[in-house]
Every structure is written in structure tokens, then in C-alpha cells.
# Entry
Amino acid sequence: MKQVIITGSSRGIGLATAKLLLQNEEVKVIGTSTSGESSINHPNFKCFQLDLSSKNSIIDFIGKLNHKKIDFIINNAAILLENNSTSTINISQLRKTFEVNVFGTIELTEALLSQTNSGGHIINITSSWGAFSETDFTQYQPHYKMSKATLNMYTKLLAKRLESNAIKVSSLDPGWTQTDMGGFDANRKPNDAAMDIISLLTDNVDSGFFWHRGKIRNW
# Structure
């Protein structure tokens, strides 16, 4: 039985990924949401409250796992606070964004490393907005972009650290997806991104790369 943690599993990509994984009877999913609630009702699914901006919330969540061994971690939860015309830096928003998208995500991952099985896989959901290679680069949404660029670097660093543990680490650019964050004019549905995540988990991919639609993309 494989154990999977998905942060931000109550909606969007996280919800779609949890539903797909639960089609396999040999998978148990531990989801998180800021409320601790989820629309999923399945015997192999549990949802716990987790606020990535709160150290105490992270500690409480880790405690509820009761040292359970984990095979896959999908770091999906994130926030986007600025609107699509914001280009100036708002230090308060920058701090809040990094608390969730960077510090909280990294703190949770680091705390779970000792519980992660050899042969496991950690997937950080990042964005084309966190890529230095992005051809349609603009000055807008600076806080979110900086947070995802940082998470991409964490992927590369962690992949190197975990080589001897046989634990893979990947970044995934899901593309423009129809979520509360992406809006409903987006050209991809949450299930499309979820299928990309499942492929990364099931295919024999190399560690330490940035993926988009099943192919390695440039950082």
C-alpha cells in the first residue's frame, strides 16, 4: 500500500490528483486543507487541517501522521495574493507569499524526509512563472514568481541531497489551469495537470528536473 501526502487537496489540482490516485485500491491519500475539510469521501482518504504559514500547524500535522511512512509527497498548496496588474513589490504580500509557498512548504518537506521511504518521490508544483527561461515573461505577479523560482531551486538542491537515499525530487509546471488561482479561461483542466502528476509518479523519470506535459522543460 502506497502512502501519498497532497497539500491543498480540497480543490483544483490537489483535489483532482487525490481523486485519480484513489482509483487505485493500493494507494492511501493524506490530504490537507486550511479548513481540514474535503469533499472526498473514500475509505483510503483522510484530510487534515494544515496552514503552511504556521509552524505550530505544521508540527500538529506531522504529529497526526504518527510516524507513518510516506512514499510520495505532492507539494501543491500555494497562494497568489497580487492581481494580474501588480508589478511593484509589497513587502507584506511578499512575506505572506513566501511563508506559504516557500518556508512552509520546505519546512513540511524537511520534517517528512525521515518518514519518506527509499524509492519515494517528492513533487513540487511550481509554475512557468518561476522559470528564468519563460519566453512570455512580464513584470507582473512578482511575489508569486519569486516564490516559485525559489521552490524550483529547492527541487534541484534536494534532488542532489537525496541521491543516496534513492528518493526522487521533481518540479512540475502544470501550465495555465482552470483553478481559483488560474481562472476559468485557462486552457487546461485540473484533471490534465493531475494526470501529469500521476505520470511522474508512475514513470521511471530522472530526479532533479522541471517537467511540463510529460517533458523536461528548461529552468
Summary: Residues 2-217 form a domain with the Rossmann fold fold (CATH 3.40.50.720). Helices lie at 12-21, 55-65, 91-112, 142-161, 190-202. Strands lie at 2-6, 27-33, 45-49, 70-75, 116-125, 168-172, 209-212, 215-217.
